[in-house]
Amino acid sequence: MPHPAVEQAMAGLIARNPGESEFHQAAHEVLDSISPVLEKYPEFVTARILDRLIEPDRQIMFRVAWFDDAGVPQVNRGFRIQFNNVLGPYKGGLRFHPSVKLGTIKFLGFEQIFKNALTGLPIGGAKGGSDFDPHGRSDNEVMRFCQSFMMELFRHVGADTDVPAGDIGVGEREIGYLFGQYKRLAIAFTGVLTGKGLLWGGSLARKQATGYGLVYFATRMLAARRMEWHGLRVVVSGSGNVAIYAAEKAQRLGARVVAMSDSGGYIYDPNGIDIGLMRSVKEDRRARISAYAAERTGVEYHAGCTGIWSVPCDVALPCATQNELDGDGAQALIANGCKVVAEGANMPCTPEAVRAIQAAALSFGPGKAANAGGVATSLLEMAQNSQRLQWTFDEVDNKLHSIMNGIYDQCAEAADDFGEPGNLVLGANAAGFVKVARAMMAQGLV
Ligand code: NDP
Ligand code: 2IT
Fold this sequence. Notes:
The chain has 446 residues and is an alpha/beta fold. It has helices at residues 4-16, 21-40, 42-46, 49-53, 102-118, 139-153, 172-186, 206-224, 241-252, 275-284, 290-295, 327-335, 351-359, 367-370, 373-387, 393-417, 424-443, and strands at residues 58-67, 73-84, 90-96, 124-130, 162-165, 233-237, 256-261, 265-268, 300-303, 315-318, 340-342, 363-365.
């Protein structure tokens, strides 16, 4: 039975945020784990921590108007949800994708609170973005959009206030245009954004960090089953920033990544992905993944992205988007003998998929723990900006590695403490929540 405070908070959230199904799903995922924590800390119930935590500190929504290359005015909607800054300045990415709605940003911002808490670093939770679709837009169109977006956002962000970064559809190009406009408006060169280019305040290893961190986390999941990467078959969905560097690191550790995807379809490459070719297709040319199949022998291309889960593998790393791996996908993975599923994307597994994976005794690593290496390395970028220094690749990568080990240890220990050893969902939610709740108690009713 859920604790009554959980039921009250969830009912309030649904009533106040009608129709925001992704936010409901993300909140359920956390709140369903929290009852034993509330039993242990009744003071959190008295202080109504849950009801306070599910209501964002601030929700910013604005019009973004810009001219396309044909001179036609275009209108998009911009968002920034500053969810909770009890542990540090707001921190979280910006997503540019046509599917972005208020509820999408709320779900991502809510996840970010606990993820950032798990890193052990001083960062609060936020997320932002727009329903703008960069696909097929020229660099000039992307620049004009970014400049218009920052024209409003700049009032709400700052190196000690709120520090956005990239997410789907926002990479170094977009961060560059956003940074240029911020600098012009604020007359200040500060660490207001992370994921910056290496020549202008970026951190080495930030681009690789989410994917590498995911593999470091999954290494611990494998070790708990007395397994290692060498010789394993891996399926990685997506072919963006997180997917490419997860695939690269897994292969460097001796695994064979046999399938990757984009929103149009997936490729099956039984010999293991050629990372150089994949980067050329997706990063340099911004082409479709079908081009990879056309340029390498022995590769199959299949239209439609969900079929990727029927490719036999030992480890599955969903790294594209929310709800991309459903109950059927999970059943296919289980039937083919998959042992470990670790989330590189935010909430890529549906609740049915997570239940099926856990019931079949596969190891499951939730995104808020497994993909926290990106935001953790963003904090390392902020630290370098404050110091006016740039650390070496290895320095950053070593710190990332130990942060991921620390996150895994916290999740495993919290799962033990709350009586479900190996349940990293419970562990991540409980460990993240306790930190945030304690800090909220200390800072009073605000
Ligand atoms: P990118 O934009 O670099 O790549 C996204 C990839 O996912 C592309 O291959 C894209 O295909 C695919 N994709 C996007 N939307 C859909 C969709 N609706 N259906 C199927 N495929 C889709 O983004 P990132 O790699 O940065 O982000 C991927 C995931 O990782 C997201 O969930 C993000 O929130 C999460 N994440 C990112 C972090 C980061 O540091 N970047 C940190 C932690 C989590 P296509 O090109 O066809 O659209
Ligand atoms: O989901 C995420 O953690 C990110 N998109 C990265 C956020 C960040 O601030 O680096």
